[in-house]
Amino acid sequence: MHSITIHSDTVRSVEALLREWIGLDTQTLGSAAIERAVRMRMKAIGTPDEHDFLMRLGSDVAQRDQLIEEVVVPESWFFRDPQVFDFIRRSIAEIAVRPGRGPVRVLCVPCASGEEPYSLAMALLDAGLAASQFHIDAFDVSHAALSRAAAGRYSVNAFRAADLSFRERWFRADDPCAVLDERVRQSVHFAWGNLLDASFAAEQSPYDFIFCRNLLIYLTTDARRRVEATIDRLLTADGLLVLGAAEPAIMKGPWRPAAGHSMFTLQRGSSTPSRTSAADVVDGLRDSATVRPIRALPAASRPATAWLAAAHGDEPEGMPKALPTAAVVAQPTGPGDLETILSEASSLANAGRNAEALEVCLRHKQQAGSSAALCFMMGMLHQSVGDLDRAEVCLQRTLYLDASHEEALLALALMASQRGNGSLAEQYRQTAARVRARKGTP
Which residue has the higher pLDDT, 438 or 147? Predict the structure, then answer.
């Protein structure tokens, strides 16, 4: 069984099935990852016959689910991007105390092993809300991930946030794991569900908040359209949609930033982006007022992908040459810790204060120089106000400093698609697939 040869026709057949089942754009993972998953499943069921394997996939739902488990490996941790939870916690707390208000309803999909919905539940309970004031539903296509979520047992890998004080409040040690408090576990309702199914959550009441982070960037165009239609059906008229930082541009319907020019939250409204550059806004802000410093939140870890491909690939090639970033004169301040600067900029942006967020980044850049993380943040800030030219420059600079920065590659692919340059978008996506494959386990 160790010498199984997988032919390209078989890989293409499996890729077609994955597109049909879960809307996966397999190019974001790469054929090597799909081939590895096929080989692992064929070994697991003890068949060297590719035709037999394909027949089983087509007729056995359990085999289909197990292949999906092999391909879709959730990567998450508690309070990933803490500024997101801080913003949503404040938003929910404000709604929950309104007279006559019922429980605030939240949907998390996909939910992986429960880290995201549990983080939200902990944040709300820490804010003083009673469990009866909110309702969290969490869905995923992975049965294994849902089983881990239900168990509420987590390894050290789930605790990567800079501020881990929540672990002392809500977990008990059971070496080598940490076990989640029952009050938090009872606050989240888990179920299997596929966003591409027309009947997904059909019996559920609309939600005030929907978390759908870092999924759209891995779906085909048709799957994105179907997911957006489902989200539109499930979100209340004034509800908020929470996405990954690079994903708002994917949404085609009438959406607008929920908090000024927020990097991650959308609500229904005009989808026409502002063409005012963030640099121009900073200049205007500097002329009219002094930026007040704010308390920095705990540093956020760099976002990871929601899908991991465990296979080797080639070195990234064809990287764009670095271009000079746009310079904006700012009053010098101390450089500070990069993680603190990024967290402060994220918090400002997510409060709709993009101009101040960009100025924080520019001050740090002047004092301490460029870094991949800083350039990526600046690229996202420019993109969030519709300044694609400056965003592209910053993202290219990100790749110059870190050729394996997968999020920058995917953001550039999306930008190229928006501009109608399909061949360049494909180049960026293929490079991202090779980067992901190299990060995987052989």
Answer: 147
Fold matches, 82-268 and 278-439: no
The secondary structure element, H or E, covering residue 153 is: strand 153-154
Distance between start and end Cα atoms, the chain: 17
**Residue 31, H or E segment:** helix 31-45
Backbone φ and ψ for 105, nearest 5 degrees, come out as -100, 130
Q: Residue 110: which of 65, 149, 79, 83 has the closest Cα? A: 149
What is the spatial distance between Cα 359 and Cα 381, in angstroms, rounded to a whole number? 11
Pick the CATH number of 82-268 from 2.60.120.620, 3.40.190.170, 3.40.50.150, 2.60.120.260: 3.40.50.150
In angstroms, the CA 430 to CA 439 distance is: 14
Residue closest to 231 by CA, chosen among 203, 248, 207: 207
Is domain 278-439 given the CATH code 2.30.40.10 in the classification? no
Burial class (CB in 10 A: 0-12, 13-18, 19+), 172: exposed
Instruction: Give me 380's structure tokens.
Output: 């996202």
Cα–Cα nearest to 349, from 337, 338, 358: 358
What 3-state class would DSSP assign to 189?
strand
Which residue ranges make up each domain of the chain?
Answer: 8-71, 82-268, 278-439
User: Sign of the C-alpha dihedral, residues 269, 305, 337, 276?
Assistant: negative
Q: Mind listing the pLDDT tens digit for each residue in 135-180?
A: 999 999 988 889 999 999 999 989 988 889 999 999 999 988 999 9
Q: Which of 81, 79, 411 is nearest to 247 (CA)?
A: 411
The one-letter code for the residue type at 275 is R
Q: pLDDT by residue (tens digit) across 140-152? A: 998 888 999 999 9
CA distance 200 to 195: 6
- At residue 393, does pLDDT exceed 50? yes
- Which DSSP string corresponds to 240-292? EEE--TT-GGG--SSEEESSSS-SSEEEES--PPP-S-HHHHHHHHHHH-PPP
**Contact predicate 320/398, CB 8 Å:** no
**For the chain, what percentages of helix, strand and coil (3-state, to nearest 5) are there?**
50, 10, 40
Please say whether the beta carbons of 94 and 54 come within 8 A.
no
